[in-house]
Protein backbone atom coordinates (compact mmCIF):
# COMPACT_ATOMS: atom_id res chain seq x y z
CA UNK A 1 0.00 0.00 0.00
CA UNK A 2 1.17 3.52 -0.79
CA UNK A 3 1.31 5.69 2.30
CA UNK A 4 1.05 9.43 1.90
CA UNK A 5 2.75 11.51 4.60
CA UNK A 6 1.56 15.06 5.24
CA UNK A 7 2.63 17.65 7.80
CA UNK A 8 -0.14 19.59 9.47
CA UNK A 9 0.30 21.97 12.39
CA UNK A 10 -0.70 25.41 13.63
CA UNK A 11 1.69 27.11 11.22
CA UNK A 12 0.73 24.86 8.28
CA UNK A 13 -3.00 24.07 8.87
CA UNK A 14 -3.54 22.49 5.41
CA UNK A 15 -7.35 22.16 5.17
CA UNK A 16 -6.94 20.44 1.79
CA UNK A 17 -5.08 17.56 3.39
CA UNK A 18 -7.65 17.26 6.20
CA UNK A 19 -10.40 17.08 3.56
CA UNK A 20 -8.47 14.37 1.71
CA UNK A 21 -7.82 12.44 4.93
CA UNK A 22 -11.51 12.68 5.85
CA UNK A 23 -12.45 11.21 2.48
CA UNK A 24 -9.97 8.36 2.90
CA UNK A 25 -11.70 7.40 6.15
CA UNK A 26 -15.19 7.83 4.64
CA UNK A 27 -14.12 5.49 1.82
CA UNK A 28 -13.03 2.81 4.29
CA UNK A 29 -9.30 3.65 4.41
CA UNK A 30 -6.98 4.27 7.35
CA UNK A 31 -5.29 7.48 8.48
CA UNK A 32 -2.78 7.78 11.34
CA UNK A 33 -3.21 11.11 13.13
CA UNK A 34 -1.92 13.05 16.15
CA UNK A 35 -3.88 13.45 19.38
CA UNK A 36 -2.78 15.15 22.60
CA UNK A 37 -2.06 11.74 24.16
CA UNK A 38 -0.45 9.55 21.48
CA UNK A 39 -0.89 9.07 17.72
CA UNK A 40 -4.01 7.17 16.67
CA UNK A 41 -4.66 4.77 13.79
CA UNK A 42 -8.06 5.87 12.53
CA UNK A 43 -10.86 4.32 10.50
CA UNK A 44 -14.63 4.83 10.19
CA UNK A 45 -16.14 3.54 13.46
CA UNK A 46 -19.37 2.55 11.67
CA UNK A 47 -17.62 0.53 8.97
CA UNK A 48 -16.80 -3.02 10.13
CA UNK A 49 -14.28 -3.44 7.31
CA UNK A 50 -12.36 -0.40 8.56
CA UNK A 51 -12.12 -1.92 12.02
CA UNK A 52 -10.90 -5.21 10.54
CA UNK A 53 -8.24 -3.28 8.62
CA UNK A 54 -7.13 -1.55 11.82
CA UNK A 55 -6.60 -4.87 13.60
CA UNK A 56 -4.65 -6.12 10.62
CA UNK A 57 -2.44 -3.01 10.36
CA UNK A 58 -1.67 -3.16 14.07
CA UNK A 59 -1.19 -6.90 14.18
CA UNK A 60 -3.64 -6.81 17.05
CA UNK A 61 -6.05 -9.52 18.26
CA UNK A 62 -9.59 -8.57 17.20
CA UNK A 63 -11.02 -9.16 20.70
CA UNK A 64 -9.30 -5.94 21.77
CA UNK A 65 -11.86 -3.14 21.35
CA UNK A 66 -11.15 0.26 19.77
CA UNK A 67 -11.85 3.73 21.15
CA UNK A 68 -14.43 5.76 19.21
CA UNK A 69 -13.30 9.38 18.84
CA UNK A 70 -15.92 12.11 18.48
CA UNK A 71 -15.69 15.88 17.94
CA UNK A 72 -18.91 17.01 19.67
CA UNK A 73 -20.47 16.01 22.98
CA UNK A 74 -23.83 15.89 21.20
CA UNK A 75 -22.54 12.96 19.12
CA UNK A 76 -22.21 10.78 22.21
CA UNK A 77 -25.70 9.33 21.89
CA UNK A 78 -25.02 8.24 18.32
CA UNK A 79 -22.68 5.55 19.71
CA UNK A 80 -23.95 4.97 23.27
CA UNK A 81 -27.27 4.35 25.04
CA UNK A 82 -28.44 4.67 28.67
CA UNK A 83 -25.85 7.39 29.22
CA UNK A 84 -25.67 8.25 32.94
CA UNK A 85 -25.63 11.90 34.04
CA UNK A 86 -22.09 11.33 35.39
CA UNK A 87 -20.92 10.92 31.79
CA UNK A 88 -22.17 14.40 30.93
CA UNK A 89 -20.60 15.81 34.09
CA UNK A 90 -17.26 14.25 33.17
CA UNK A 91 -17.58 15.41 29.57
CA UNK A 92 -18.34 18.97 30.65
CA UNK A 93 -15.21 19.03 32.79
CA UNK A 94 -12.69 16.96 30.81
CA UNK A 95 -13.73 17.01 27.14
CA UNK A 96 -12.17 17.73 24.84
CA UNK A 97 -9.31 15.95 26.60
CA UNK A 98 -7.54 12.74 27.61
CA UNK A 99 -10.49 10.89 29.19
CA UNK A 100 -12.16 7.82 27.68
CA UNK A 101 -15.51 6.65 29.01
CA UNK A 102 -16.94 3.14 28.71
CA UNK A 103 -20.68 3.23 28.11
CA UNK A 104 -23.37 0.88 26.85
CA UNK A 105 -23.04 0.58 23.10
CA UNK A 106 -25.73 1.57 20.61
CA UNK A 107 -26.70 -1.52 18.58
CA UNK A 108 -25.96 0.25 15.26
CA UNK A 109 -22.28 0.48 16.11
CA UNK A 110 -20.62 -2.63 14.59
CA UNK A 111 -19.33 -5.23 17.02
CA UNK A 112 -16.06 -5.32 15.07
CA UNK A 113 -15.33 -1.86 16.48
CA UNK A 114 -15.98 -2.90 20.08
CA UNK A 115 -14.21 -6.24 19.90
CA UNK A 116 -17.55 -8.05 20.29
CA UNK A 117 -18.43 -6.25 23.55
CA UNK A 118 -21.80 -4.58 24.15
CA UNK A 119 -20.01 -1.56 25.61
CA UNK A 120 -18.15 1.18 23.77
CA UNK A 121 -15.15 3.33 24.70
CA UNK A 122 -15.64 7.00 23.68
CA UNK A 123 -13.31 9.95 23.78
CA UNK A 124 -13.24 13.51 22.47
CA UNK A 125 -9.61 14.54 21.95
CA UNK A 126 -8.44 18.14 22.36
CA UNK A 127 -5.86 18.17 19.53
CA UNK A 128 -7.16 20.42 16.75
CA UNK A 129 -5.90 18.29 13.86
CA UNK A 130 -7.68 15.32 15.43
CA UNK A 131 -10.93 17.26 15.87
CA UNK A 132 -10.81 18.61 12.29
CA UNK A 133 -10.15 15.12 10.95
CA UNK A 134 -13.01 13.58 12.94
CA UNK A 135 -15.39 16.20 11.56
CA UNK A 136 -14.07 15.81 8.00
CA UNK A 137 -14.52 12.04 8.16
CA UNK A 138 -18.16 12.11 9.24
CA UNK A 139 -17.82 12.34 13.00
CA UNK A 140 -16.79 8.92 14.35
CA UNK A 141 -13.22 7.63 14.15
CA UNK A 142 -12.33 4.27 15.68
CA UNK A 143 -8.68 4.45 16.67
CA UNK A 144 -6.22 2.52 18.77
CA UNK A 145 -2.73 3.87 19.35
CA UNK A 146 -0.80 3.88 16.06
CA UNK A 147 1.92 1.42 17.09
CA UNK A 148 2.38 -2.17 15.95
CA UNK A 149 0.87 -4.34 18.68
CA UNK A 150 3.20 -4.73 21.67
CA UNK A 151 5.38 -1.70 20.91
CA UNK A 152 5.33 1.56 22.87
CA UNK A 153 2.61 3.96 21.69
CA UNK A 154 4.05 6.53 19.26
CA UNK A 155 4.34 10.09 20.54
CA UNK A 156 6.17 11.37 17.44
CA UNK A 157 5.38 10.98 13.73
CA UNK A 158 8.72 9.29 13.02
CA UNK A 159 7.64 6.28 15.12
CA UNK A 160 4.26 6.11 13.39
CA UNK A 161 6.11 6.05 10.08
CA UNK A 162 8.41 3.31 11.39
CA UNK A 163 5.47 1.11 12.46
CA UNK A 164 2.73 1.96 9.95
CA UNK A 165 4.35 2.92 6.63
CA UNK A 166 2.84 0.68 3.96
CA UNK A 167 -0.05 -0.39 6.25
CA UNK A 168 -2.15 2.82 6.13
CA UNK A 169 -3.28 5.24 3.42
CA UNK A 170 -2.06 8.41 5.10
CA UNK A 171 0.05 9.50 8.06
CA UNK A 172 -0.51 13.00 9.39
CA UNK A 173 2.61 14.39 11.04
CA UNK A 174 1.36 16.86 13.63
CA UNK A 175 4.55 17.05 15.69
CA UNK A 176 5.12 15.74 19.21
CA UNK A 177 2.21 14.68 21.42
CA UNK A 178 1.76 16.96 24.39
CA UNK A 179 0.82 14.38 27.03
CA UNK A 180 2.64 11.31 25.70
CA UNK A 181 0.62 8.66 27.58
CA UNK A 182 -2.73 7.22 26.50
CA UNK A 183 -6.00 8.55 27.93
CA UNK A 184 -7.43 7.62 31.31
CA UNK A 185 -10.16 5.01 30.82
CA UNK A 186 -13.14 5.02 33.16
CA UNK A 187 -15.88 2.37 33.06
CA UNK A 188 -19.26 3.94 33.79
CA UNK A 189 -21.15 0.68 33.23
CA UNK A 190 -19.82 -0.87 36.44
CA UNK A 191 -20.91 0.05 39.97
CA UNK A 192 -18.99 1.81 41.40
CA UNK A 193 -17.35 3.45 38.39
CA UNK A 194 -13.93 1.97 37.76
CA UNK A 195 -10.64 3.22 36.33
CA UNK A 196 -9.47 0.63 33.80
CA UNK A 197 -6.34 2.48 32.71
CA UNK A 198 -4.67 5.31 34.67
CA UNK A 199 -3.74 8.41 32.68
CA UNK A 200 -3.16 12.13 32.75
CA UNK A 201 -6.58 12.73 34.34
CA UNK A 202 -5.84 11.27 37.71
CA UNK A 203 -7.68 9.10 40.21
CA UNK A 204 -7.44 11.96 42.69
CA UNK A 205 -9.14 14.39 40.27
CA UNK A 206 -11.85 11.93 39.22
CA UNK A 207 -12.63 11.25 42.88
CA UNK A 208 -13.81 14.87 43.18
CA UNK A 209 -16.68 14.05 40.80
CA UNK A 210 -17.15 10.35 41.63
CA UNK A 211 -16.29 9.92 45.33
CA UNK A 212 -16.66 6.12 45.32
CA UNK A 213 -14.57 5.54 42.18
CA UNK A 214 -12.25 2.50 42.33
CA UNK A 215 -9.33 1.04 40.39
CA UNK A 216 -9.58 -2.17 38.43
CA UNK A 217 -7.38 -4.11 40.85
CA UNK A 218 -6.25 -6.42 38.07
CA UNK A 219 -4.34 -3.69 36.26
CA UNK A 220 -2.29 -3.11 39.37
CA UNK A 221 -1.82 -6.59 40.81
CA UNK A 222 0.23 -8.53 38.29
CA UNK A 223 -0.28 -11.77 40.22
CA UNK A 224 -4.09 -11.59 39.93
CA UNK A 225 -5.64 -14.57 38.13
CA UNK A 226 -8.41 -12.34 36.73
CA UNK A 227 -7.76 -10.51 33.45
CA UNK A 228 -8.09 -6.71 33.60
CA UNK A 229 -11.42 -5.34 32.44
CA UNK A 230 -9.96 -3.36 29.53
CA UNK A 231 -9.03 -6.28 27.27
CA UNK A 232 -5.97 -4.44 25.98
CA UNK A 233 -4.42 -4.20 29.43
CA UNK A 234 -3.81 -7.97 29.53
CA UNK A 235 -1.36 -7.98 26.65
CA UNK A 236 2.35 -7.38 27.08
CA UNK A 237 2.60 -3.79 26.09
CA UNK A 238 4.88 -0.88 25.49
CA UNK A 239 7.64 -3.42 25.35
CA UNK A 240 11.09 -2.23 24.38
CA UNK A 241 13.35 -4.79 22.66
CA UNK A 242 15.58 -4.82 25.74
CA UNK A 243 14.81 -6.66 28.92
CA UNK A 244 13.70 -4.03 31.38
CA UNK A 245 13.73 -4.04 35.18
CA UNK A 246 11.99 -1.43 37.28
CA UNK A 247 13.86 -0.65 40.50
CA UNK A 248 11.80 0.62 43.43
CA UNK A 249 12.96 1.91 46.81
CA UNK A 250 14.73 4.83 48.48
CA UNK A 251 16.68 6.75 45.80
CA UNK A 252 20.11 5.99 47.28
CA UNK A 253 19.40 2.24 47.29
CA UNK A 254 18.10 2.42 43.73
CA UNK A 255 21.25 4.17 42.50
CA UNK A 256 23.54 1.67 44.25
CA UNK A 257 21.57 -1.31 42.92
CA UNK A 258 21.53 -0.05 39.34
CA UNK A 259 25.25 0.79 39.38
CA UNK A 260 26.02 -2.75 40.66
CA UNK A 261 23.92 -4.19 37.84
CA UNK A 262 25.67 -1.98 35.28
CA UNK A 263 29.01 -3.40 36.40
CA UNK A 264 27.80 -7.03 36.34
CA UNK A 265 26.15 -6.74 32.94
CA UNK A 266 28.85 -4.80 31.16
CA UNK A 267 31.37 -7.50 32.09
CA UNK A 268 29.07 -9.84 30.12
CA UNK A 269 29.34 -7.54 27.12
CA UNK A 270 25.72 -6.38 27.27
CA UNK A 271 24.68 -2.90 26.23
CA UNK A 272 22.96 -1.22 29.17
CA UNK A 273 20.45 1.60 29.33
CA UNK A 274 19.24 3.47 32.41
CA UNK A 275 16.01 5.40 32.75
CA UNK A 276 16.84 8.11 35.24
CA UNK A 277 15.71 11.63 36.19
CA UNK A 278 17.26 15.09 36.03
CA UNK A 279 18.15 14.70 39.71
CA UNK A 280 20.11 11.45 39.23
CA UNK A 281 21.22 10.85 35.64
CA UNK A 282 24.83 12.00 36.18
CA UNK A 283 25.30 9.32 38.83
CA UNK A 284 25.21 6.43 36.34
CA UNK A 285 27.89 5.27 33.92
CA UNK A 286 25.87 2.98 31.62
CA UNK A 287 26.15 2.90 27.80
CA UNK A 288 23.07 5.07 27.55
CA UNK A 289 21.55 7.06 30.41
CA UNK A 290 18.33 8.94 29.70
CA UNK A 291 16.47 11.32 31.95
CA UNK A 292 12.67 11.41 31.83
CA UNK A 293 12.83 14.91 33.33
CA UNK A 294 12.62 16.29 36.82
CA UNK A 295 10.88 14.34 39.59
CA UNK A 296 9.17 17.64 40.36
CA UNK A 297 7.51 17.61 36.93
CA UNK A 298 5.19 14.62 36.57
CA UNK A 299 3.89 15.88 33.22
CA UNK A 300 7.38 16.03 31.71
CA UNK A 301 8.20 12.54 33.00
CA UNK A 302 5.00 11.15 31.44
CA UNK A 303 5.66 12.85 28.12
CA UNK A 304 9.14 11.39 27.75
CA UNK A 305 8.65 7.74 28.70
CA UNK A 306 7.56 6.23 25.36
CA UNK A 307 10.07 8.36 23.47
CA UNK A 308 12.90 7.09 25.68
CA UNK A 309 11.78 3.45 25.27
CA UNK A 310 11.81 3.89 21.48
CA UNK A 311 15.24 5.52 21.59
CA UNK A 312 16.64 2.52 23.48
CA UNK A 313 15.27 0.31 20.69
CA UNK A 314 17.07 2.47 18.11
CA UNK A 315 20.31 2.18 20.10
CA UNK A 316 20.05 -1.63 20.35
CA UNK A 317 20.22 -1.60 24.12
CA UNK A 318 20.08 -5.15 25.63
CA UNK A 319 19.17 -4.42 29.24
CA UNK A 320 17.33 -1.48 30.79
CA UNK A 321 17.21 -0.50 34.47
CA UNK A 322 14.61 2.10 35.35
CA UNK A 323 14.09 4.24 38.42
CA UNK A 324 10.50 4.22 39.64
CA UNK A 325 8.08 6.86 40.86
CA UNK A 326 5.68 7.28 43.73
CA UNK A 327 2.26 5.94 42.69
CA UNK A 328 0.16 9.04 42.87
CA UNK A 329 -1.15 11.66 40.45
CA UNK A 330 0.15 11.36 36.90
CA UNK A 331 3.10 9.23 38.13
CA UNK A 332 0.57 6.45 38.67
CA UNK A 333 -0.01 6.30 34.90
CA UNK A 334 3.71 6.46 34.13
CA UNK A 335 4.37 3.64 36.60
CA UNK A 336 1.57 1.54 35.08
CA UNK A 337 3.23 1.79 31.65
CA UNK A 338 6.70 1.14 33.08
CA UNK A 339 5.53 -1.99 34.89
CA UNK A 340 4.01 -3.23 31.64
CA UNK A 341 7.10 -2.33 29.65
CA UNK A 342 9.13 -4.40 32.07
CA UNK A 343 6.76 -7.36 31.78
CA UNK A 344 6.11 -6.96 35.54
CA UNK A 345 9.80 -7.21 36.44
CA UNK A 346 10.03 -4.97 39.45
CA UNK A 347 12.65 -5.32 42.18
CA UNK A 348 12.40 -3.64 45.56
CA UNK A 349 15.66 -2.53 47.10
O1 LIG B 1 -5.21 8.15 24.35
C1 LIG B 1 -5.76 7.20 23.85
O2 LIG B 1 -6.70 6.60 24.40
C2 LIG B 1 -5.25 6.72 22.47
C3 LIG B 1 -5.53 7.82 21.45
C4 LIG B 1 -5.22 7.40 20.04
O3 LIG B 1 -6.86 8.24 21.58
N1 LIG B 1 -5.87 5.48 22.11
C5 LIG B 1 -5.56 4.29 22.70
O4 LIG B 1 -6.21 3.21 22.17
O5 LIG B 1 -4.77 4.19 23.61
P1 LIG B 1 -5.77 1.71 22.42
O6 LIG B 1 -6.64 0.91 21.53
O7 LIG B 1 -4.33 1.56 22.26
O8 LIG B 1 -6.20 1.41 23.89
C6 LIG B 1 -7.58 1.32 24.21
C7 LIG B 1 -7.79 0.50 25.44
C8 LIG B 1 -7.48 -0.97 25.26
O9 LIG B 1 -6.82 -1.44 26.42
C9 LIG B 1 -8.87 -1.59 25.14
O10 LIG B 1 -8.90 -2.91 25.57
C10 LIG B 1 -9.69 -0.68 26.03
O11 LIG B 1 -9.18 0.59 25.77
N2 LIG B 1 -11.12 -0.67 25.65
C11 LIG B 1 -11.67 -0.22 24.51
N3 LIG B 1 -13.01 -0.43 24.50
C12 LIG B 1 -13.30 -1.00 25.67
C13 LIG B 1 -14.51 -1.47 26.27
N4 LIG B 1 -15.68 -1.38 25.66
N5 LIG B 1 -14.45 -2.02 27.50
C14 LIG B 1 -13.26 -2.11 28.16
N6 LIG B 1 -12.09 -1.69 27.64
C15 LIG B 1 -12.10 -1.15 26.42
MG1 LIG C 1 -2.45 0.96 22.51
Structural class of the secondary elements?
alpha/beta
Q: Can you write the helix and strand succession as a string?
A: EHEEHEEHEEHEHEEEHEHEHEEHEHE
Q: What is the name of the CATH architecture of the largest domain?
A: Alpha-Beta Complex
CATH superfamily of the largest domain: DHBP synthase
Query: What percentage of residues falls in helices of 4 or more residues?
Result: 25-40%
Count of helical regions: 10
Determine Rg (CA atoms, Å).
Answer: 20 Å
CATH fold descriptor of the largest domain: DHBP synthase
Q: In angstroms, what separates the terminal alpha carbons?
A: 50 Å
Q: Tally of extended strands?
A: 17
Query: How much beta, percentage-wise?
Result: 15-25%
Distinct small molecules bound, one entry per kind: threonylcarbamoyladenylate, magnesium ion
- Overall average pLDDT: 94
CATH class category label of the largest domain: Alpha Beta
**Overall geometric form:** globular
- Domain count, please report it: 2
Sheet with most strands: 12 strands, mixed
Uncertain runs are none
Amino acid sequence: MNTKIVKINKIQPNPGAIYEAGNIIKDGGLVAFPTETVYGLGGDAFNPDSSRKIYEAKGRPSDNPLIVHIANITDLDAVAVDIPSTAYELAARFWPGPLTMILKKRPELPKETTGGLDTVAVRMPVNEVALDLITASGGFIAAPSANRSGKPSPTQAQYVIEDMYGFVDMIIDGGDCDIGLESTIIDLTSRPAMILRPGFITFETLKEIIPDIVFDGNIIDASSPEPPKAPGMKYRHYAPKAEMTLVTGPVDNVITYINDKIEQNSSKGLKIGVIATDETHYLYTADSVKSLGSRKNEKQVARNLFKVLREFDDEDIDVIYAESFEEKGVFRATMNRMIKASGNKEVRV
